[in-house]
Amino acid sequence: MSSTTGQVIRCKAAVAWEAGRPLVIEEVEVAPPQKMEVRLKILFTSLCHTDLYFWEAKAQNSVFPRILGHEAAGIVESVGEGVTELAPGDHVLPVFTGECKQCAHCKSEESNMCTLLRINTERGVMLNDEQSRFSINGKPIYHFVGTSTFSEYTVVHVGCLAKINPLAPLDKVCILSCGISTGLGATLNVAKPTKGSSVAVFGLGAVGLAAAEGARLAGASRIIGVDLNSSRFEEAKKFGVSEFVNPKDYNKPVQEVIAEMTDGGVDRSVECTGNINAMISAFECVHDGWGVAVLVGVPHKDAVFKTHPMNVLNERTLKGTFFGNYKPRSDLPSVVEMYMNKELQLEKFITHEVPFAEINKAFDLMLKGEGLRCIIRMD
Amino acid sequence: MSATAGQVIRCKAAVAWEAGKPLVIEEVEVEPPQKMEVRLKILFTSLCHTDVCFWEAKGQTALFPRIYGHEAGGIVESVGEGVTDLQPGDHVLPVFTGECKECHHCKSSESNMCSLLRINTDRGVMISDGKTRFSKNGQPIYHFLGTSTFSEYTVTHVGCVAKINPAAPLDKVCLLSCGIATGLGATLNVAKPTKGSTVAIFGLGAVGLAAAEGARISGASRIIGVDLNANRFNEAKKFGVTEFVNPKDYDKPVQQVIAEMTDGGVDRSLECTGNVNLMISAFECVHDGWGVAVLVGVPNKDDAFKTHPINLLNERTLKGTFFGNYKPRSDIPSVVEKYMNKELELDKFITHQVSFSEINKAFDLMLGGQGLRCIIHMEN
Fold first, then answer.
1. Are the C-beta atoms of B117 and B159 separated by less than 8 Å?
2. DSSP readout, A106-135?
3. ipTM of model over 0.90
4. What separation in angstroms does the CA of B205 have from each of B59, B145, B186?
5. Of B110, B113, B288, Cβ closest to residue A113
6. Which of A38, A254, B266, B282 could cross-link with B200 by S-S, CB 3.0 to 4.6 Å?
7. How far apart are CA A2 and CA A7, in angstroms?
8. Closest-CA residue in chain B for A115?
9. A-B C-beta contacts closer than 8 Å
10. Per the database record, which ranges form the Alcohol dehydrogenase-like C-terminal domain (chain A) (predicted)?
């Protein structure tokens, strides 16, 4: 039991007061965890594009003031009623989507889209009582995707926490609680390239490079990186990318370019931009007979995926993934182990580091398209 | 060696002289098989919708006169140079798509779309010399899909012939050389429903019912049949279909109707009509997280498959199949065995029988939307 158990904690949090305005480090009050909840001390967090998107809140129902952040690692401070799987001192990764272990999705071998705890970007309160655990002078500050990790302490549903190896360096494995797992799992769990196969990865940001890393681990013989930004190519080599295609360099559709490079098409493709045209290209560039395309990046809400039915009838498979098809509680600990046994490399994703007080620098870097992951140190 | 080996055979064939006109039984000459070809005596054949589509030749390059037919069972009469896998007397099913066993597709464990011998609806001649083996009074008559089974004798590439159990009744298993295998394989090889799962089948013609049969064999707990023609529902019960949805009965999209019936969506769906809107419905009616939709029916015009990307990102899978993903030579013999050991039922697909001279009745039945399969007996 920690000395703060059952009490309100006063700590620092980076509060987004308005859409698009720099976060402000404020002193907030964090209420104790209620039933099936856990209060965590966050040690390291990182910025993911999804935080940026909802912070900018363009054309969405904005919820402000809000504490963003969902890629992080921390230690359990105290647990609420009914929580048996976690205890104070446990090392955990909070995840923006959960696993209740009871619903049809959790019981399915395939799905990770828990009926109770799946990602909800609109909700800014806890499920138990539909209230926020954060406040400033009695005024609620809203949660974000059930994690709100831009705070020294946060409260999360127990189903949204992965208990991990306490030896794992939290400043590295924090990036597994979103983007890197999303890309890695898209390849390892969904595309499943066989040894020696060819893979095309669309989008060479952190998620795409994680997908490429997955293809490298799977023993792909060719990993073709597709990006409109040629300056990403050099970095991508560290992740196993062997060839590069910039669609801007060609007069024909990129799926044609890739098909010509690969005698009819790649064995697997993984689409990590969310651009609808790239999604269609990613599907149409896989080989007929056996090709599988996996969509990862999330498009804007009016996008329409369109293809000629013959492309499907010619035995191409089209799949989509969410969080790399990893079940957060059941599967993430083993991904941490892949890092611990040196199968998976994470350091190369971390290009910057800032202290919590300078969290807005992480936003600046991402807005400028610089770097891959910036670790924010809470202490 | 048969008595006719190496010689031209004169026999009867049902020739299509013009698009959409009744076939005429003619005496034709059938050349001996050349390199890698075999000449077959066809004993039974059946009409498949694809024959009708190309015979009608609406909006397609017309190639006439032509001998249609691609669903059949026969016996090898003679083989050409280089053929070692087959010999006279072998019982076979000719298939409209082949398996050379050498190309990447044939070597892949997944694909059945042989680079050399995959379906070609435009070609009316044999690959080895670009000529036809059929003629009448010196006038060439074109092949169809490399099979041309509406003839007492035909010549096919050896890669397009499946050698089967000689004890199998050819008047039943001839159906496995196209439609029934297509639907069955779509379910067993591609959709792969697990025991107790829920399956939706769009289109309750022969292919859809074969897909339903596959779901029945797999132990699906619910098989929901979707068809605009309520008359098909009764027949469909014989194939394991447990519930019926007629999209015309509802104001909302059929995928919504199905999702409501199944607590969020079916585990597997198979689309067996070729209608693009139904393809979209078949995809959108499977459950998020684990649902798989398989497209089987071929569209007859240029159209686009469209869906909101979130339907894919929510972990639905979209697949397409061709000939049920069966490799003709490697896999079809085992499908015949499924029939022989009574796992698979075929008799219920056969609703009509006619003699070869009455082959046009089979067309009438299909054009009238009647029945499932009509067996054409080549011998009286």
1. yes
2. HHSSS----TTTS--SS--S-TTTS--SEE
3. yes
4. 24, 22, 14
5. B288
6. B266
7. 10
8. B289
9. 122
10. 206-338
